[in-house]
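We were asked to recover a plausible sequence for a given structure. The inputs and outputs are reproduced exactly as logged, with field labels preserved.

PROBLEM: sequence recovery
POSITIONS: 468
GIVEN STRUCTURE:
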């Protein structure tokens, strides 16, 4: 594991409340820096800059590596060897957080459209803003080294002065915005969306047929196959503009942005979590099986009832839930799942969802839970290794961070991660969108094509395209 940009030191943190600060104002102000965003509902986190960046060294597809354990071990060594300075910590602040994610596969090559996104990347940001209904708090932090000419108290005072200046600048930024609210769905100029890399209907049908043959021969019970859609914009929509629109329409999802360098961005709106850990309490959701959202409230209810009654969708969902329980059980004191799935209604689509919750064994870390469960049948298939082989064989593109776990963890081992679904990567003047569908016995190429089309919709609408 490489620790990029800085040597270890002791962390000094200062904070201030900033009434009325929006994530968009902060992220616009932070333009030119590494930026990120994480939100669900009315709670959000935004960050910029980097005190520390953790990246594993690149490994070839043949060698592979345990990225989850490497990041976990490095973060724990930072906690143990470089403790936060006693007496200089804001008692209202929780443990420092690292934000980032992992690629879908451990053999990921961070090149092309995925430049800037290695197999794993996490930042301890220089600035973090935490927003919730009770208020907004901004945190400024830096590493203090013992060889510094200034004392810890002097460095803390300097940080307080700097933070006061940042708060003042953000107030001026608010004044320049003038309270003008942009329409969330005003269209950007764009060229016609087009499938690329041979990922149109013909190749899709051939890939689905190949997977279904493997299903019928008993090689696999489920494979999640994905396709891409490229949207070339004539005048570029900034990642921040697209993110704001995505968040406005997808409050029930986990909305995220990772922008390691300006212009290279990955964002999405994931409907599920793969691991949430707070203390010893664990939660996740198994999501599989899909249906249209419906054109009216009555239609939505009918579609949801058909989904609950669908033998094919219930079978796909049960595979995902059982495998999650099997993988997680060795790490748990107690683990339970809902007796029956319920319908999760999102804009444009509905899913079957089952809640999984339990108590972890002493000493477990959210990253050790991820290592056990990723990739789940909801993003890969079952059996895992055979499904991975088929995906690599028939998908004509690099998944990169698509369907990999993204989120945050803190120095105590708590955190939350979602699979990077309903997502898109930005670069080279275009957006590349990703969407997948679970193939099981009874799946049809045309129905799965339509399902992936529905899953493109959140980012397409955020782009203002509105077509698929």
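RECOVERED SEQUENCE:
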């Amino acid at each position: 594991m490489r620790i990029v940009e800085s040597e270890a030191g002791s962390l000094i943190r200062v904070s201030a409340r900033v009434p009325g600060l929006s994530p968009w104002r902060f992220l616009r102000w932070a333009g030119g820096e590494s930026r990120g965003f994480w939100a669900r509902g009315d709670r959000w986190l935004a960050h910029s800059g980097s005190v520390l960046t953790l990246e594993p060294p690149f490994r070839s597809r043949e060698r592979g590596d345990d990225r989850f354990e490497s990041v976990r071990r490095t973060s724990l060594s930072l906690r143990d060897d470089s403790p936060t300075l006693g007496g200089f910590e804001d008692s209202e602040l929780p443990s420092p957080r690292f934000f980032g994610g992992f690629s879908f596969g451990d053999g990921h090559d961070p090149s092309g459209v995925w430049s800037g996104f290695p197999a794993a990347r996490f930042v301890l940001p220089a600035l973090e803003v935490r927003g919730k209904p009770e208020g907004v708090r901004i945190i400024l932090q830096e590493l203090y080294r013992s060889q510094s000419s200034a004392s810890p108290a002097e460095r803390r005072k300097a940080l307080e002065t700097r933070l006061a200046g940042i708060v003042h600048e953000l107030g001026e930024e608010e004044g320049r915005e003038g309270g003008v609210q942009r329409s969330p769905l005003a269209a950007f100029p764009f060229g016609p969306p087009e499938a690329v890399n041979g990922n149109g209907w013909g190749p899709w049908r051939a890939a689905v047929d190949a997977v279904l043959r493997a299903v019928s021969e008993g090689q696999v019970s489920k494979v999640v196959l994905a396709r891409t859609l490229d949207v070339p914009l004539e005048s570029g929509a900034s990642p921040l503009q697209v993110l704001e629109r995505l968040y406005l329409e997808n409050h029930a999802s986990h909305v995220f942005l990772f922008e390691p360098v300006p212009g290279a961005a990955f964002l999405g709106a994931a409907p599920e979590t793969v691991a949430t850990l707070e203390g010893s309490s664990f939660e996740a959701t198994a999501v599989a099986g899909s249906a249209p959202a419906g054109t009216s409230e009555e239609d939505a209810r009918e579609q949801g009832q058909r989904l609950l009654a669908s033998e094919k969708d219930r079978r796909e969902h049960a595979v995902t839930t059982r495998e999650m329980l099997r993988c997680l059980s060795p790490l748990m004191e107690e683990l339970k799942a809902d007796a029956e799935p319920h319908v999760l209604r999102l804009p444009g689509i509905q899913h079957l969802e089952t809640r999984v919750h339990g108590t972890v064994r002493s000493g477990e870390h959210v990253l050790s839970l991820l290592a056990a469960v990723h990739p789940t049948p909801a993003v890969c298939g079952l059996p895992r290794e055979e499904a991975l082989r088929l995906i690599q064989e028939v998908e004509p593109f690099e998944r990169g961070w698509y369907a990999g776990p993204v989120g945050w963890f803190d120095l105590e081992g708590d955190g939350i991660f979602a699979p990077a679904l309903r997502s898109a990567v930005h670069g080279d003047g275009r957006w590349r969108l990703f969407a997948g569908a679970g193939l099981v016995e009874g799946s049809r190429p045309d129905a799965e094509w339509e399902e992936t089309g529905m899953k493109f919709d959140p980012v397409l609408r955020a782009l203002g395209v509105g077509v698929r």
